[in-house]
Amino acid sequence: MMHAARVHQAGGRFQVDTLARPKPRENDVVVAVKAAGVVPNLRNVMSNYGERAYLTVPELPAIYGLDAAGIVEDVGEMVSGIVPGDRVYINPGRSCGSCHACRSGDAINCPAYTFQGYFGFGPASQRIYKLYPYGGFSQYATAPASGLVKLPEQVSFEAAARFGYLGTAYSGLRKAGVGPGRTVLVNGASGTLGLGAVLLARAMGATSILGVARNRELLERVRAIDPARIHVLSAGDEPVGEWAHRLTGGVGVDAVLDTLGPGAPGQAMLDAITALRRGGRLVDVGGMNAPMQLNMHALMCAQVSLIGSLWFTVAEGEEMAAMAAAGTLDLSVLEHHRFPLGEVNEALALAEKRAGGFVNVVVMPSGQGE
Ligand SMILES: [Zn+2]
Predict the structure, then answer these.
(1) DSSP for 178-215?
(2) Residues flanking ion ligand 1, Cβ below 5 Å
(3) 91 in Cβ contact with 185 (< 8 Å)
(4) Is 166-308 in the same CATH topology as 2-162+334-364?
(5) Ligand 1 centroid distance, CA of 115 (Å)
(6) For the domain 166-308, what is the CATH code?
(7) CATH 3.90.180.10 fits domain 2-162+334-364
(8) What per-residue confidence (pLDDT) applies to 114?
(9) From the CA of 329, how far away is ligand 1's center (Å)?
């Protein structure tokens, strides 16, 4: 048997229940979950039932928990590249495996794309919840072997529980063309997505990383990570476009990663667009949901691209793990706040305070990590 924290009613509290321990199907593994990330948006998702439903969520009672990392306990008979004892992160992105997008190697654009332990993008997600009902707030979870990122010993389970945010930022930075010799502006640089973007842009070789946010104290901590390459602006101190052009010899930045979340003002993204050079790209990963008035003529003439990016692939997760192993991706600035499985409610309350990107709230379902 095992313990799992489940939600029994829409928007309700987590309650620890005793359930049967899962066995792996042929292509699956069972992971003893050592750390699971706590996402501040979780309460919105947990409330998404009945008349409030706009996402596809697992039927109640449900085991939530988006970002799980742990030790492989058992593997199905078809699994060969993963063995019991492996340290892994479960990329929770599940797809149907056989539609046109999946067969094209583009699983994130599968119409059934679903986050195990969180929410999905359409009615086909319910079938995936039946197949993979275990979120991270469970002592054991099943996952397809193809959905695992192997963790080097340098990445703690607590840091791996942050891979969802980190990977979202990383995939967006890749789509923005960030790399050696490039400049990038991170909008919302002190938040959970934004701090990850700064760490990854640094790992990817970006020479100038411009961070915009509101909280001066947090921004100063972001700048202190690498004062030679990271420059920060407290929003409102100077127009973002003028500042970015001043720091880039009048050219503008190559890329903007916009991490602003739902509820942020559209003007903040419009301001960030003005920081781009001709031919620059803005990639949105934050989910800002305000309508914006865009001058498409000006964007066309300047060949500016606006790109939406969702989540990240297992391959991108493997790249992050390799960078962390090599030390080019330094996750040591994260401050882990650990909660036992019985205190998921308290963990969520702390995450909802949104104290900034340095705080990493995790639940430890199978005891302490390493
Ligand atoms: Zn598919």
Answers:
(1) --TT-EEEEETTTSHHHHHHHHHHHHTT-SEEEEEES-
(2) 95-96, 99, 102, 110
(3) no
(4) yes
(5) 13
(6) 3.90.180.10
(7) yes
(8) 97
(9) 32
Assess contact for 289 and 265: CB atoms under 8 A: no
How many angstroms does the Cα of residue 109 sit away from the middle of ligand 1? 8
Measure 317 CA to ligand 1 centroid, in angstroms.
20
Cα separation, 178 vs 327, whole angstroms: 19
**Spacing, Cα 23 to ligand 1 middle (Å):** 24
Tell whether the model's pLDDT for residue 50 goes beyond 90. no
- Tell how far the Cα of 98 is from the centroid of ligand 1, in angstroms: 5
Contact yes or no for 235/206 (Cβ under 8 A): no
CA of 281 to the centre of ligand 1 (A): 28
What is the Cα–Cα distance from 242 to 224, expressed in whole angstroms? 23
Domain positions in the chain: 2-162+334-364, 166-308
- State the distance from the centre of ligand 1 to the C-alpha of 97, rounded, in angstroms: 5
Reported as a single tens digit per residue, the pLDDT across 234-289 is 999 999 999 999 999 999 999 999 999 999 999 999 999 999 999 999 999 999 99
Rounded distance from Cα 40 to ligand 1 centre (Å) = 28
Expressed in angstroms and rounded, the spacing between residue 114 Cα and the centre of ligand 1 is: 10
pLDDT at residue 368 greater than cutoff 80? no
Q: Give the DSSP letter string of 35-77.
A: EEE--TTHHHHHT--GGG--SB-PPSSB---S-EEEEEEEE-T
